[in-house]
Every structure is written in structure tokens, then in C-alpha cells.
UniProtKB/TrEMBL annotation:
Name of this protein: 2,5-diamino-6-ribosylamino-4(3H)-pyrimidinone 5'-phosphate reductase
Native source organism of the sequence: Torulaspora globosa
The keyword Heme belongs to this UniProt entry's keyword annotation: no
Subunit-structure text: Homodimer.
Superkingdom in the source lineage: Eukaryota
Domain Bacterial bifunctional deaminase-reductase C-terminal: 29-235
Entry-linked NCBIfam families: ribD_Cterm (TIGR00227)
Length: 244
């Protein structure tokens, strides 16, 4: 399915929050935390239920963001629930070549590239093969998958600082958009030193109390806040207070 055109006021609105053009000497990738939530702060109807929240307009925006990042990161909960493609469709045929590298946190090695939508797109040259982040030597190595062995602070909690440095130094990834899911987002909302920009789509619906909730364990202040109003959604761009 093709995307609808990008609304022409979005590039200017997003520009201050996008990774800067290459040439930056930063030691870590630029990290954008971006996701779509309901009015009651749910990002899906329930665990394992892939749920559309974004309007067609903001779906196009997501692919525009993918166009501008080298990597796209998700947790194992999301890859197992959604079987996402994570490619870039913005800019039609040309857009595929701007697809970010998928990065999957999967320390328990539950996910398989084989049979996934990601692999299907990769085989059609419409997306990239993933980097799978693991805490110990993989039990099985799948063809075309790169495995990144990384320290974990505790069970299922990767050491973000080391991971970001390794992605930068070993894979030349200068910018990453983190799409989710809730466990990953709740953790990163508390890390202003690592997150450079926050881009949240707020869809005009409620998903109910059994939905997967984004709500960090403590309060989080934002700065450099800007809002965009779409046909059915709003987009919040901001920086976490305390970020550089
Ligand atoms: N609306 C939207 O924009 C989006 C919605 N979603 C929804 O989110 C839901 C999934 O969320 P959820 O179940 O919370 O799973 P997540 O996708 O957040 O995955 C969590 C897993 O990531 C791994 N992980 C490794 N290090 C960390 C760390 N430091 N912090 C957090 N997680 C880490 C762990 O798995 P392991 O031990 O296996 O390594 C952990 O269990 C799905 O329903 C999906 O549809 C997802 C993305 C975007
Ligand atoms: N921006 C946005 N809006 C929604 O309504 C969503 N449900 C999501 N989900 C994220 O996008 C991934 C699916 O990607 P593909 O379309 O398969 O490429 C999904 O896994 C979530 O990370 N995002």
C-alpha cells in the first residue's frame, strides 16, 4: 500500500528535531524516541495486538522519519507482537534505499528473521537485514543477520550507553529512531543524556485500560516543546529536560 503525500508543513516543523547532516563528530548516535499513542497513553489495544493509531498523514510522517535515520530500534515484545517491516516507503522506489537498519533487542533469542516480514522486504531489496542485540553468544546464527553481543545491566535490560557506542563504532550508525514498545520507551524516557529528540503522535482515540500503557515510573519534564495539528492527530516534538 502506498503512502499519501507528506503534508507540506511537516518538514519545517520537524527539522529542529531531526539528526543533523553527517559530518558530526558525536561519539554516540543521535537518538529519536518516536511512537504513536492514544489519548489514554496506550500504544496498542493489548499485548500482542498490532494496533493502528496514526492517521494516514502521520503514518507518512513516520516513514519520513525513517528516511532520516540510519537505524530503527525495537524491543523483543514489539518484534514478536507486530512482525514489523521497519523499512522506508517515503519517496516511493527511491525511499527503499533509505530504509534504516533494523535493530532488535532480543537477549532471550526468541525471534526468528526467517519467515518474518522484515526478511521478505529484505529479499525484495525493500528493507535492510537486522542487527540482533544479544547478551550471550547466539545459540543459532541466521544468514544475513548481524549479532551484537552487548552487556546487560540486569535481565532484559541492555546497557544503553554501551549499545549506542557499539552501534556507532562497529556499524557506523549515526542516528537511531527508537519506535518502542512500552518497556523500551518507559526506560528511555528517564535517560535525557541518551535521547536527543522526542516525537510523539497523539491519535484521536482511547484504547482502554487493558491497552499497553506508556507511563514512566517517575515524572518527566520536557522542553523545546512544539505541537503540530493534523486532520485527526497531533504531533508533539520536544527534548527531555536535562538533555544536551
Ligand atoms: N504505537 C506505537 O507507536 C508502537 C506500539 N508498540 C506496541 O508495543 C507493544 C510491545 O511493548 P512491550 O511488550 O513493552 O515490549 P518492548 O517492545 O518494549 O520490548 C521489551 C523487551 O525489550 C528488551 N530490552 C532489552 N533491554 C531493554 C531495556 N533497557 N529496556 C527495556 N527493554 C529492553 C527485553 O527483551 P529481551 O529480554 O527479550 O531482550 C524487554 O523485555 C506491542 O503491543 C506493540 O504493538 C510498539 C512500538 C510502537
Ligand atoms: N507511528 C506508528 N503509528 C502506529 O499507529 C503504529 N501502530 C506504529 N507502530 C510501529 O510501527 C511498526 C510497524 O512497522 P511497519 O509498518 O510494519 O513497517 C510497529 O512494530 C511499531 O513499532 N507506529
Amino acid at each position: 500500500m502506498s503512502l499519501q503525500p507528506l503534508r507540506d508543513d511537516l518538514p519545517r516543523f520537524l527539522e529542529p528535531y531531526l539528526p543533523q547532516p553527517s559530518g558530526s563528530q558525536a561519539a554516540k548516535p543521535f537518538v529519536t524516541l518516536t511512537y504513536a499513542q492514544s489519548l489514554d497513553s496506550r500504544i496498542s489495544k493489548g499485548k500482542g495486538i498490532r494496533t493502528t493509531i496514526s492517521h494516514a498523514e502521520t503514518k507518512t510522517m513516520t516513514h519520513y522519519l525513517r528516511y532520516h535515520h540510519d537505524g530503527i530500534l525495537i524491543g523483543s515484545g514489539t518484534v514478536l507482537a507486530d512482525d514489523p517491516g521497519l523499512n522506508c516507503k517515503y519517496g516511493s522506489e527511491e525511499g527503499y534505499s533509505h530504509s534504516p537498519r533494523p535493530i532488535v533487542l532480543d537477549s532471550r533469542q526468541q525471534w526468528r528473521f526467517e519467515g518474518s516480514k522484515m526478511k521478505d522486504l529484505y529479499l525484495k531489496s525493500q528493507g535492510q537485514a537486522p542487527i540482533v542485540v544479544v547478551s550471550e553468544e547466539p545459540r543459532e546464527r541466521e544468514k544475513d543477520v548481524a549479532y551484537l553481543l552487548c552487556p546487560y545491566l540486569s535481565s532484559s535490560r541492555v546497557d544503553w550507553k554501551t549499545l549506542l557506542k557499539k552501534l556507532h563504532d562497529e556499524f557506523d550508525i549515526k542516528s537511531i529512531m527508537v519506535e518502542g514498545g512500552a518497556t523500551v520507551i518507559n526506560d528511555l524516557l528517564l535517560k535525557p543524556a541518551l535521547v536527543d529528540a522526542l516525537i510523539i503522535t497523539i491519535g484521536s482515540r482511547f484504547l482502554g485500560s487493558s491497552g499497553v500503557e506508556v507511563s514512566p515510573i517517575q515524572s518527566v519534564e520536557l522542553e523545546a516543546v512544539a505541537w503540530w495539528n493534523g486532520t485527526a492527530d497531533a504531533v508533539l516534538c520536544a527534548k527531555l529536560s536535562g538533555s544536551k
